[in-house]
Structures are given as structure tokens and as C-alpha cells.
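INFO worker-7 received task bundle
INFO bundle size: 2
INFO processing item 0
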Amino acid sequence: MKKYFYLLAVPVVLFAAEGEHNYDIVARTINFLLFAGILYYFIANPIKNAYKGRINAIEGRLTAVRNKVLEAEKRVEKAKNGVEEARERAKVLVEIGKKEANQAVARIQADAQNELISMKNTFDEQKEFAERSAMRETVSKVLSDVFNDESIQVDQKELVNLVLKKVS
């Protein structure tokens, strides 16, 4: 209120300092006050409405920004939870992978051991077969040499006795 008083008092003081006794200051002051009142009457509401509209627009933008910030914070929290869940799932998957790898190693070792045993058995059978085959061949060759050789005469009884001794 003091501001308005000073605004009105400044022109009065300035005109009073002129030195001439010009008393039309009262009329000018009244005209100014009327002009200010009329101006206030016509312009005050549009200015107030514009000011309120500006405040509402700023408030709306602030509300929108706050909402976006809250949404962003929710998305960040959701992303953090997703990352944490992914880490937990990764740990579980790594553990499962290790278990499966260990099982695969054990299975491969068992298969390899079985394959080695099978190969050894096959080798032993082939070796035994080769030995018998070589033995038959050698016996057959010796017998054919003996029967074809005329210097050695073996009668049938002696041959049967030799075979029986060999068998027993």
C-alpha cells in the first residue's frame, strides 16, 4: 500500500517544486487516478486470467514431468529387478550346465572304458583264433609232410596213440 502512496506522492512533490503556483496538480492527480482505475477495471481480469493460465500451464507441465519421472523410476526399478532375475537365472543355468558337463564326462568315460574292454575282448578272441588257426595249419602241414614222406613209416595204431596222447 505504501508503494502506491509513493507513486502518487512523487508527482505531487515534483510539481510542487516548480516554483510557480500551479494548482492544476489536483485535477491531474484525479484524472490520473480515474485513468488508472478504468485501466485496472478493464485490464485487471484479462491479466489475472492470463497469469492464472500461465500458472496452470506451468503446473500442468510440471505434473507431466513428475509423472514421467515416476514412470522412468518405475521402469528403472523394473529393469533392475529384471537384471537381478537374469543374474539368478544365469547362475542356475551355469550350475545346470556344470552338472550336465560332469554327467557327460562321466558318461563318455564309462563309454570309453566299455569300448576299451570290448576292444580288448575282441583282440583276445582274434588272438586266440589266430593261434588256433596257426596251430591247425602247422599241425596240418606237419601231418601232410609226415604222410608224404616215405622215409618215415607210421602205422595207423601208432598214429591213433599219438593223437590220443595229445588229446589227453
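INFO item 0 finished
INFO processing item 1
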Amino acid sequence: MEAWTLTPDNLTVLICDDEEAGRDVLSFELEQIGVRRVITCASADEVLDRVQEGLPDIFFLDIQMPATNGIELARELARYKCHIVFITAYVGFAVQSYDVDALDFITKPVTSRKLTRALERSAARRLDQPEQPAGYLVRIQEGRHVQLLGNTEISCFLAEDKYVRVCADNRELLWRQTISGLQKMLQADFIRVHRSAIVNRNRIRRASSRNGRLELTLLDGRVLPVGKTFETEVRSVLERL
């Protein structure tokens, strides 16, 4: 992304505040300084659902929220190098915000000057760290716990009875989910290659033939057969890689 200007039409901002008035005020002030794409959420759970569609450029998080507060939510997002700005009426949370490498800490009342400063800091950080975060996150429910995995770190999903094995960088998770249900949730970077397998097309190292059947070798060395039903679609994808 290019350096931020006073009319950032390409900027996507997510606001999380459990109070509607807080969301409305922040949305209004952002619109006044040129932000056109504003997403509003009332809880951490809403945020975790939303990021499966794509990571916003900046998160504005209220700190005091029921259930999961802004600091805890920021810790879940931190590994994806998200730009996080805290909004609070209490300066006592400032020290905790530094622990999660927050971009800025804004005390209420929110003003356009404070927001402009935060957006300028985001632009400066992007220039210093040009690498982009994962395109979106996949939210995996493990009992009472939630795991967030970036789409780029997942190699494949493999069906195992009533579960799906999630094969990612340096770890595997079991998710109580079906392959068919998962296929409806994922974006186009994942393709169904077998009735029991979905793979990340960007993790395919090569395709080969064994006994007349197509099989794929992934970057992690895993070799997966392609089901006859899915072969035509998989070959079409391979031609575009």
C-alpha cells in the first residue's frame, strides 16, 4: 500500500466497540478525514468472524468490552502484524497496549487530529515493513478455544471421520468440521481435490501421474491423490499457476 494521504480511498478500517455510540462517533470522525471503507463490530467474536473475509488495514479497538477485551483480542491478532489502535477513556491501559505493539493509543474524546496521527503512523510503519500480512484468517474452533490461522500458512485440510485435520506450518489441528462445510467457507485460494481433501493452490509444488491418476505434491512434501470427480477442475487450476 502506498503512503497514506488525506483522502485514503483504498484504506479499510475496522472498529470494535461494544457501545453503539462509540462506533458511531468513530465512524463519523473517520469519514470526515476521508476514510470510505469502515467496518463496525460490537464484540471480539464479530471481529474474528469478519477477518475470515480479509484483514483490514487498521483495527480500532475499544479496550473495555465484555467477554474478550481489546487487549486480549489484539494478542490474538498480533502474529499477523496487524496495525492496531486502542481507543479508551482510561490512560491506565497504555502500558498493556505497548505489550502488543499497538500502533497508537487514543484516549477519548476521539478527534480527527488523533485519528489522523494514527493513520499517518500506519503509513510510516508500512514503509518500514513493506511485507503484507496474511490475506485473511481462518477461525478454527477447538472446543472452547479459538485458533486463528492465516490462509497462506495452511497447506491442506484432510477429512478424518467427523473431523478435519488442518495441516499448517509446523503444526496440525483437528477441527470438528466437514470437508463439504469447509469448502463453502474458504476462498478461491483453496481447491477441492478429493472427496476427503482440500488444498491451498499456492502450496502445490508439482503435479504428476501415477498409474494413470493425477496426484499433487505440496511444498511440505505431502503427496495427495486427485479424485476422478475433481480432476478436470484441478487441471484447469494447474494451468493457471
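INFO item 1 finished
INFO post-check item 1: Residues 1-7 have pLDDT under 50 and may be disordered.
INFO post-check item 1: The helical segments are 20-32, 44-50, 70-77, 94-99, 112-128, 179-185, 231-240.
INFO worker-7 idle
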